[in-house]
Amino acid sequence: MSVSELKERHAAATETVNNLRDRLIQRRLQLLDTDVAKYTAAQGRSPVKFGATDLVCCRTLQGHTGKVHSLDWTLESNRIVSASQDGRLIVWNALTSQKTHAIKLPCAWVMTCAFSPNGQTVACGGLLDSVCSIFSLSSTADKDGTVPVSRMLSGHKGYVSCCRYVPNDDAHLITSSGDQTCVLWDVTTGLKISVFGGEFQSGHTADVLSVSISESNPTRFITGSCDTTARLWDTRDASRAVGTFHGHKGDVNTVKFFPDGHRFGTGSEDGTCRLYDIRTGHQLQVYQPQGDGESLPVTSIAFSASGRLLFAGYANNNTCYVWDTFLGEVVLDLGELQDSHKNRISCLGMSADGSALCTGSWDSNLKIWAFGGHRRVI
Amino acid sequence: MPLKKPDSIHEDDDCLFAVEYDGPPLPYDIPRAVPINMDRIPVAAVVSPVCISAAMSFPVIQPILSIDSTKKQLSREKMVSPTSVIEHVSDSTAVSPTEEVSGELEEETTARGLAFCDSFEVSEEKESLDNESVLSMDYPSSRVTGDCVSETGGKKQPVVTFLGIASDDDDDDEEEDCNQKRTRVVPVKKQPQTKGKKGSCYRCFKGNRFTEKEVCLVCDAKYCSSCVLRAMGSMPEGRKCVSCIGCPIDESKRGSLGKCSRMLKRLLNDLEVKQIMKTERFCEANQLPAEYVYVNGQPLYPEELVALQTCANPPKKLKPGDYWYDKVSGLWGKEGEKPYQIISPHLNVGGPISAEASNGNTQVFINGREITKVELRMLQLAGVQCAGNPHFWVNEDGSYQEEGQKNTKGYIWGKAGTKLLCAVLSLPVPSKSISNASGDQLHSANSRSILDHLEHRTLQKILLVGNSGSGTSTIFKQAKILYKDVPFLEDERENIKVIIQTNVYGYLGMLLEGRERFEEEALGVMNTKQSLIEDEEGDAKSNIKTLYSIGPRLKAFSDWLLKTMAAGNLGVIFPAASREYAPLVEELWRDAAIQATYKRRSELGLLPSVASYFLERAIDVLTPDYEPSDLDILYAEGVTSSSGLACLDFSFPQTAAEENLDPSDHLDSLLRYQLIRVPSRGLGENCKWIDMFEDVGMVVFVVSMSDYDQVSEDGTNKMLLAKKLFESIITHPIFEQMDFLLILNKYDLLEEKVERVPLTRCEWFQDFNPVVSRHRSNNNNGNPTLGQLAFHYMAVKFKRFYSSLTGKKLFVSSSKSLDPNSVDASLKLAMEILKWSEERANICMSEYSMYSTEPSSFSN
Fold this sequence. Notes:
The structure holds two protein chains of two kinds.
Chain A: H1 3-31, H2 36-42, E1 55-61, E2 68-73, E3 79-84, E4 88-93, E5 98-104, E6 110-115, E7 121-126, E8 131-136, E9 149-154, E10 160-165, E11 172-177, E12 181-186, E13 191-197, E14 208-213, E15 220-225, E16 230-234, E17 243-245, E18 252-257, E19 263-268, E20 273-277, E21 283-287, E22 298-303, E23 309-314, E24 320-324, E25 329-333, E26 345-350, E27 356-361, E28 366-371
Antiparallel strand pairs in A: 1-28, 2-3, 3-4, 4-5, 6-7, 7-8, 8-9, 10-11, 11-12, 12-13, 14-15, 15-16, 16-17, 18-19, 19-20, 20-21, 22-23, 23-24, 24-25, 26-27, 27-28
Chain B: H1 4-12, H2 16-20, H3 29-47, H4 57-79, H5 85-102, H6 106-119, H7 121-137, H8 139-153, H9 158-167, H10 172-185, H11 187-197, E1 213-215, E2 222-224, H12 228-232, H13 262-267, H14 270-282, E3 293-295, E4 298-299, H15 302-310, E5 321-325, E6 331-334, E7 339-342, E8 365-366, E9 369-370, H16 373-381, E10 391-394, E11 399-402, E12 410-411, H17 416-424, H18 437-458, E13 459-466, H19 472-483, H20 490-532, H21 540-543, H22 552-567, H23 570-590, H24 592-599, H25 611-615, H26 618-621, H27 630-635, E14 646-650, H28 656-661, E15 672-677, E16 698-704, H29 718-730, E17 739-745, H30 747-756, H31 786-806, E18 811-814, H32 820-838, H33 854-858
Parallel strand pairs in B: 3-5, 8-10, 13-15, 13-16, 16-17, 17-18
Antiparallel strand pairs in B: 1-2, 3-4, 5-6, 6-7, 8-9, 10-11, 11-12, 14-15
């Protein structure tokens, strides 16, 4: 078989695959006769109502001198780690709003950070050397204030865009990277366990931007990528993605599991958030802000404890819409509230118990929002 | 009679206003003035809601008082002849006794006044503006108010104070005075309330003066333990109210910086307390403001203060104030006092020392300063001849000589007794750095953090972008070698050595591959020849050995090498085995077949151009004890990681000529630059992280000029790829206001190549016509070469492209990245552009044509 013949067959096969994919997408669209919002509206439900003091900014965490790019809560919901462009990781006590650690990083271009489930270590990753660094909070800083790196997870060939610990497992961490792959690491040895994507055909075809691991089933995780898709993976089977979710028309900037673990939300450069169902593979709902103006990219999303609310930060001034996930309506804009951020909200994080939302912004502050008044946590 | 009264006032407080008022013919002025005062007061009241602090309620009260007084004035004026300004004065003095009572409370209220003033910073401007407008509109009226205030204050010259506020805002002392005075008025009304709450928490108004409280470093507000966390928030600058964040601290509290109270320790855990105390001590807002420190009569610049604080022997307990500093000997003291300490000499801070710096009267001079009696005593006891009022020059080591003489007469602190003597007379002795090592450590930690801050301020970031193969990494390495004292550390060099050796094996492998191909070709040619010339059959056997054939032993080695390469674990095996194979490699390299192949290296497409540099020295390089030189590192591929980003902090070393020419450029040496090289991968369409580089000062885009005939894997011209990347970067919204410098790299290769391969090979350069586009050139040796023309052409192409997209000017420079001078020139140009962009308004950018880059491009 000559080379040209092989090339021809490869092209033909690629086209077949593309056709099949398009048909699949078409078929899914046909089957999608309703969405959550229509159904809920038909059931006569009304959207969540917010009073003036129902969601208030109760803490402002000041201390960073650059844009905040990422944050993560501990499991006990009392501490937050944040990563900023000033090249520092700061560990905050969310209750007193004091800093417990300020870790100076060797490289200022940090993009992501994560708290380990036991709260003893933090991980961060970014542009330099495409390494994910692990810092132990118990190790003492030398007199410069630099904390020694306890473990370097190196092996990615592109920037590390996101890192998340596997729930209830301090030894395992999943990173996503600009080299189109995700990697499951053994933190104790610093070695790769498995690589998701890359040379395999079912992997992402562009930079992977975000990872979210299911709380209820830690072997499952989803990724969002610049190839406009989100993919579902099983950590035990690295050879292929369990599912691919189409629909977005721009880079998928952020993904987040729905609290029940059977659905997940995405936020994209195309200005929409979407809700997908893992079991059926269908798109359940599109959350697109009203108005005919230019659509604003979604930077980060978070679900409330019940999943009824979807918080989404947008890439303009300080917009952070609160969506009613059932009715697909914006019920609140955090940017309109008192004490809101003064610049783009770049990251969101809901505490594990759902009692507070933390937002990080380009105005170098973090804010903690809590449900005030007599409203119970939803 | 009214004329007499003003006179008496003249005598009392010799103020200018009375002179101006001498002519009393403007009786109606004063009534008109009063409404304006009224205007002013409401403004103060309006401003007050801005303040969120607990001290809020106080400002409101003060205006009420003034309204009262003005009302009184008003009523007076209605009755009394308006001419008698003095009447009001006396009137307000009559009020003053009640205010005198408030004097008891002075301490507390002053503090409150400060609190109020600081939280009001924003509004102050407004207020002062108002004052000004009052002044400008109606001078007399303002004077009246000024007078009132002064009387209540009762200490300072009223008019001066008032004018001080109104005319120049930057004098903080005056402002504070003013605020103190204003708030001193406050308790008159508020007295019972404040008395009841004296010592209570400023937020919850609970507790008494004995309850433990934390004090704000700026405004002196006191908070009880249950309020402190709410009032001070996350304390990003230490113990300050949320509203005081960013304000300079009260100087009297400098001593307590970083000293934690028991209350905080109780409220927070150790780690948190440590963090707060650290930021409190080192954050920028809490540093000593340089302009308050006067050295030899001159206020310091921030850089000078840093120099002073970071020297080997910094002055201890530096506070705002006047100091004298003897630069030759390092003697340091408060203005008008004897020396207090000997600090590092030769620091370029403050002005020249004056003779009266320490207010001496002995007529004996040390380095131009008349010394004090105590010093003279010490000198005499130390055995220094002081007869005849000599002028001494004293160096930092204590050696002294008489002015105008060459020979050193001795060492002042040479004898042990002198030091003891100095201790008795409480005079300083030169400190030995060894004696207080711990202290030094403390200082160095301190200075480092200050340097950190300085770095923050003056670090200019330069982003270096380019397609792979454009030479960004070479430029980066070049910069490292140029501007770093130690460009590569030991272990770095070790790594680089391994990389180079692996590379060389790789090149060898490519050569061997080429050899096989050439051998096949040669054999093929030979076979056809053989078939043509049948009669030479007898020689066929011997002729099978072509020019490219090698012996069986080398053949085995080469086969094995190629196999390892194909398997992809070259990097794993070879560095370790290099010792073993070195002789074999040597033999291989010397083999005629390899040499013959090497001669045809230009036909081997994969072999990079730098390969020949290493291959020619293959034997040296592959020995185990090879140490890469800087040049080797420069040539080596793959030294900087291709996937990650690399950054380099540097400052341009100053040449002696520059220093001599322009001493004002001294500050430039403090300017630090950071060169950031980003990987070309992933820069494509989804520049996901490019907005992280929003704060860079400029972007340097590198294009390899010799790329015009090269084709990438997918068949596109590399020059067009570079153009595409260039377009996506210059049009990125983040870089809208950014300056771009285009470095057209590999000029040496272009020069050589353009003679062989026409520039029109690239479709973007179709209209390159050297004859038509002949430029006037600075080159004096007659006509410009084709290489120069090609460079100019490309520069113009890029410039037009850039301005068509952005409407701005593009800076272009050519360089040969392997030549340190040309890289230096290009980066210096980048620095110039950064400097210019700061004063853009003054410089007409359109003047800057590509010809001005020529010296930098061609002089090398």
